[in-house]
Design a protein that fits this description.
46% helix; 7 strands
């Protein structure tokens, strides 16, 4: 069953108890894979690390379309900064995916390396947690 993550985020923000937040994390940990915007290309591509409140954050997306849209917006901004001409093909960004068990190990490794946040679905319906807490959330909500 496909989840409406925008609705889950809204519910988690207005809930008077923890049910909305629990449902959001349960759905996140029930996904088969997480998606990432690539930094680099081909075999050298790695998930993009961004910034949240001035601290390093792994950008994670709950579906491929969100990741692709973010990658395209990012490439368009970079093109604007460089003053480069735009063509549709050059604006598309590479999207990586990891099965959830592999993504959880990757999050743990990055946390040990000093990355502080996990930022899911960057944008208007973003949600986040400390990267060190991802493993705990997976165990608590069924992804671990």
């Amino acid at each position: 069953m496909e989840q409406d993550f925008d609705a889950l985020v809204e519910a988690s923000q207005v809930a008077t108890n923890k049910t909305g937040e629990q449902n959001l994390w349960r759905a996140t940990m029930a996904l088969e894979a997480w998606y990432f915007v690539a930094r680099g290309a081909g075999d050298d591509a790695e998930p993009l690390i961004g910034s949240l409140e001035g601290k390093s954050a792994l950008l994670i997306f709950t579906d491929e379309e969100r990741a692709a849209a973010f990658a395209k917006r990012r490439n368009m901004r970079q093109s604007d900064v460089r003053g480069a001409a735009r063509d549709a093909a050059s604006m598309e960004g590479e999207v990586l995916h990891m099965d959830l068990p592999d993504a959880l190990v990757y999050c743990e490794d990055l946390s040990k390396a000093g990355v502080e946040w996990a930022l899911f679905n960057s944008g208007g319906y973003a949600f986040q947690c400390a990267l060190i807490d991802v493993k705990d959330k997976a165990e608590r909500y069924g992804g671990g």
